[in-house]
Amino acid sequence: MFERLWWFVSGIVAGGVVTVRALRRRPRPDDLKHAIYHTSADLMGLASRVVAPRDRVLDR
Asked: Which of 3, 22, 23, 53 could be a cystine partner for 31, CB 3.0 to 4.6 Å?
């Protein structure tokens, strides 16, 4: 149940972010499309920083 709730909340948040980015001026379909691209690029950049391994010095 909590997993479904998590996906619902994350979808609402992502949709809100895309809409806010598109509403800087009167939105057109292309504005929504570009907002989706920019938001997904930001999310992938954030995910890559979270998932990336830390730099470690290996003892030899």
From this structure: 22
DSSP, res 59:
P
- pLDDT tens-place string over residues 12-43: 888 887 777 777 666 778 877 888 888 888 88
Question: Tokens at residue 31, please?
Answer: 């504005």
Here the tokens at position 14 are 């992502």
- For the chain, how big is the Rg over CA atoms in Å? 17
DSSP letters for 9-53: HHHHHHHHHHHHHHTTSS--HHHHHHHHHHHHHHHHHHHHHHHSP
